## 1
Amino acid sequence: MASASDVRSILSLPAVSSPAAGPSQPKNQVAVSNRKPEGISRELYSLIGPSAPTLLAQLAQPRLKQKPNLGGGGKVKWEWRLFKNGARSDSLKLGHWVKATDNPDADYKFAKYNAQPTVYEWSQDEYSRHLEDSEWTKEETEYLFKLAQEYDIRWHIINDRYEYPSGPKREIEDLKDRYYSVCRKLIRNRTWAGDEFSKSQLLLSFQYDKEREILRKKYVASLANRTPEQIQEEEALYIEIKRLDQNERQFKRDRENLLRTIAGVDSGLPDIIEDDASLIIADPKKKKLKGIDLDIPQTPVLTAPVMRRPPALNKNAVYDTTHCIIRNDPPSTTPATKVAHTPAYFRSVRISYPKAGIADKVNALLAEVGVTNSRLVMPTHANCQRLESVTDAATNLIELKRVLDKVNLDIEVLKNRLQLREDGGDSASVADATEMDDRGDTAEPEGENGRSQSVLSARSTRSRKHTRRSMSISSVDTTVATSSRPSTKRQKRM
Amino acid sequence: MVNYGGDEVSALVIDIGSSSLRAGYAGDDAPKAIIPSSYGYIPPSVHSDNGDVRMNESGASESVSKAKSFFGHSGPSIWRANMEIGNPITDGLITDFGPIPALFRHALEDVMRCSASEHPILVTEPSWNTTANRERMAEIMFEEFQVPAFYVANTSVLNTFAAGKGSALVIDIGQSTASVVPVVDGFVLRKGLQHSSLPKLVHAHARHLLTAPNPVRRPADLYPYQLISSKQAVEPNAPPRYTLREDRLAGTTQSWREWYEAREVEEWVQSVAGVLDQGWNDQLIVQHRQHKQYEFPTGYNAWFGPERFGVGEMYFHHSPQLVAGNPDIPKHIPGLITDSLRACDPELRQVLISNVVLTGGGSLFSGLADRLGSELARSFPHFKIHAPGNPIERRYGGWLGGSILASLGTFHQLWISREEWQEHGKAIVGQRCK
């Protein structure tokens, strides 16, 4: 928007410089050039310098907020200037208001938007060589190209205005097809200045498939020409299909679960899925007619997938050996349940590891003989078997050694016992003596230290008495400490 | 100052319709001069009283040039003895170019106080305008008004521009014509162009309703104020008590009287008539709809109930009996829309129906936009109606679009200059204004 000063300059009025001007007119301050002396910070100088805020400013009349000066300030001289539009072929001069500072010789700035589409032309020779078409005359083709240029290749308009006298009725697809095919032929047959890529790009931009367009338009028309009833029916059908689909999926899930339970088949039942697919695709119209009955699926065939198990089960030894197939027969004893079923797996997963209790020892042993028990680099069937046998052997060895050690220990213990039994009296007196010592030790701090008593108070004095007694009695039989409750009970009963 | 690609060259825009002529500067948001298209003239036979009455066929325009003519707001609406009323427009087209220069001159010089020779002028035309008509208009502009540059633009396209669109289905309801025009990329699709004199039918229906004998109400006399000297207040539906100005009756011409009666009917239609937004429903009307009171210049006043909705129903539905009685009855709006879309490419239909522009003073009829929405909803799942709420924009949409177009920087290359006119003659109009 032009400000007041713009208007004034347009109307060639003198600028208002009297102090009685409106509050929006900022007074022209005399520019005082006092530079900030060196060595004083800017903030400080603004406080003490000549521009320091004075009381006068605060006592001055309150003013309205200044209008923002968007035009860069100052006076702008506008003038009515005639201009020539570069997009025009004649010498029409229109006038408009421009800033006087603008370059009068500059091109009209909207002229550059006058972009013309490239229009292909051809010589008679070119036409007769490449562009002949039984359905189009040269004149009509020229008429088409003239229209295309006139309406900037807006096909709907061209089609609307297309009135070639004594020509056949043309559909928009005919026009497009002719236009694009002519353009393609011309590009193909002319020498091309640029590289091949840009040529093929350009050719691609003129690609037009008439049949497809007609088909597409037919679809659009049929879509638009539906009656409300048809639209409703279509929607109903769509919902119906969705519902059926959902039912189907539910049914499939149920069946799969059932199969897992019964036959122990897990994942990968492609035949079942196919079965479902064919079921869904089956004529929707027919389904629609049947209506709600379809909630009950038509093919509750439990046996079908089982019967159709792939021929993987037939055991052909010759076939297997020639193809290096090794079968792991599932243990026949286990029931055919889901738990028993094993899906596909890596052979290396099946390598058995030693039991956790002796694993360390086995590993140590294997390491000693130079076999690593970690994953095999090449877990072939033979390798796995061999590793397994080695591990088994090591495990057996360790087990045997353990048994041996145990037996040895037992022998040792029994020998000791025999020894003890031979000189029994000595051992009893010794035991009494130690017991007496023990009692003296515990009794002594009882009087001196209350704290230790409190610590010991967990044990009742009575139980201690029993202990003592039982110890004295049972010390003959066993060396095991007899503070346990069952033993005291037994003592009581005695 | 170059905002939105605008560059104002102080062009003038003139939009002429059946009821009014709008003129103003391009770039404004409303026309400066709005004057009635109808004009009054006193034929020279009466005026000069010489008795040399020429009765040839082209007499109308010939006589107007000699007759004393009255334009503008104090033209036809003021009673003058022996003044006839003329209107250059028939069915949206200018059929009588005689008074056109005088009308334009009145708008530009008497109302706007500017000279046409200093400004490029953009004139509007209806979509079904003839080549001869637009060439004649160019001739008038260049030869009589000495304009430096001229352009003629299509009202439907301009209405599309006024709505800020490039493609639209323009439903323009004027005083005499209703049209449905598909516009694509700023061009009218001529094959889909549909128009009918539906507003006239509605007008005739309303007039019949008011003046025909009726079991409920007495027929109203449509005397204008100018012919009534005194009247007294009466009870609703009571016979009016008024006295006519006998002195004027003798000098009143038939055309002036008809014009004024039409205005009375128009006023009644605008203030009382309406249309139901969901189609005709007897129960709904009886239960919910308010009666409206209206007083005619004679002092006769009455309450109007359900019948006021019957008037608007004519826009959307014609009863089978009516169609049977009048085979060439003007098509109603849904019919026009259907025919228009049928002629368009199937691909375009969805584009058009989702860009419906409702415009024209007739579209301000009470409830029309809502009803149009419910009518469209019946046949099209996705549609959108652009109907400006501002009555100025609705009534002068064509002018507004012209104002936008003629102030665009990129438009200035399209003006037909005086030089081109002199060089190429009439042919340039058809070449430039597509």
## 2
Amino acid sequence: MLKADDLRVHFPVRSGLFLRQTGAVKAVDGVSLELAGGETLGLVGESGCGKSTLGKALVRLLKPTSGSIHFEGRDMSHIGQRALRPLRRDFQMIFQDPAESLDARMSVRSLIEEPFRIHGMGSRAERKKWVDELLDTVGLSAASAERYSFEFSGGQRQRIGIARALALKPKWLVCDEPVSALDVSVQSQILNLLVDLQKEFGLSYLFIAHDLSVVKHISDRVAVMYLGKIVELADSETIYRNPKHAYTKALLSAVPVADPKVKRKKILLEGDVPSPIDPPEGSAFGHRLNHPRYDETIGMDLSLKEIEPGHWVAADPCCLEPEDWKRLS
Amino acid sequence: MSEENLLEVDRLITSFETERGLLRAVDQVSFSIPYGKTVGIVGESGCGKSVTAMSIMRLLPQPSGKVLGGEIHFKGEDLLHASDKRMREVRGGEIGVIFQEPMIALNPVHRIGRQVAEVFRVHKKMSKKDAWDAATEMLALLRIPAPEKRMMDYPHHLSGGMRQRVVIALALACRPDLIVADEPTTALDVTVQAQILDLLGQLQSEMDMSVMLITHDLGVIAETCDEVVVMYAGRVVESAPVEELFGNPLHAYTKALLRSIPTLDTPPKSVLPTIPGTVAALADYTHDCRFCQRLGKKTVTTRERPEFKEVQPGHRLEICKECSDL
């Protein structure tokens, strides 16, 4: 349904007296992915790896620098805002912090009604009916409509954000850290709601989060991102049971397990994610690991290769076990 | 006061003066922190975890916040009635604090070196030069690469993980007996969180400190704590050694909390157990069991406050007919 091909989003870095472009932040640097109807694709990675930028580029809140995005066969990567507007009904976004993404001066009714007004849909009476239905769908009482978003708790506010995103009956949604600002007990309510909505309306999700247990719970497939690139992509069981890339392994081992009897050996990484302004020339993660084979990877093609059916991993000698590397090369 | 406890908090009551009257954010909270151990305080936002910590350090927002009752003993000393001068010595000297957001804890207009050296200047009355050297040593102890260079940096030069190391350096500078860490890794990525928790654990055993770790992450609790205190709506509902609490939770709230987190073993897209309702607003807290209030249950007990007592050695529980297993 959705297909991105070699997508790049670079932000110019300007400096000097005439603000000449002196470099670029390569936030998303050559990402290709597909999203099928009714599927959830999880996207994980550390902060600054470009996962939110990728999400925003896919819903065209950002203009990609190069590469293409095809939605149901139509190229929407470089069309203008006006031509984009009718298409926007099909894809929406749920943001991390509903306190910031909802206008505090608008009642819940006008917040949820806004998409209909922008798209000139329905009469006043119809819109009222639709808002009431949407509130019911996300589990809020009809009386909430006349109140303001700040009167609600975090979880209820996120429900308002979801109702707004669902208003135009989209086909797919980008959920950017939708539960990370919530308490665990509320988090599970919102996750259940997202799963229910997916079943009811056949939605597809691109689910961005840093909490790996949450991502595993909700996703069919998971993509792991590091420094603007996807380094591993597989269905979620496989990626958690049998990770191939060294970064995925480190990420998984770092997740704290809520069971004091489990004592695991952690892979502790040194240092931080390198700057996307001046990324290493070769394997980015190999550079962080100080891997002896790093020099070989400069200029090497490190793109994703299918190691097992449906399991894609970056062909990178620094980050793969020797036997996996042999199978790929 | 028991000999093996570094800190004892007994029936602490902290209130805030608001437009709606005097509201009790912390309502008779009791727990203790033994020497050399890590005690986790867990609960949802607004349950009073941070207010408890602020009460111990006497850093409540003034003039609205007040401790109205209870006792706090630190190494046998009554902290609630200590002089302001003495409290300034205790804070940063004998009790170190690590806050959640390192960008707020550090002053953006001063160099890292000056901020870390200041602790030595104030608490140890060191000369400028000695304090600077001690600060450099402290950064090296926290495995900050090239500490001499980092001393000259401003906080915004550093990554989140490095900044949090600087905050920990500030807290550990005087080799305190107790570290109060309020959500120290919540703002960090999992890989950096693992580094920081590992480092904190090592330094804790090297320096023989106790840690009070406030978090909402049960995974972090399970991996780092010796004992756990579960708070709900301003009260402690259950406290026990970590294996006991995870293996044999007795309060309905603790059980619900443990069930509601997805783990890597939960079947995908299955319905996660949730806790119905939401935490009542501070002004609407009932006097009887507050978890019953959330569940909308009419408690069988009268309007009496549920008793909090030791039910098994080391395992303490708030007794409510509906919510506790006994």
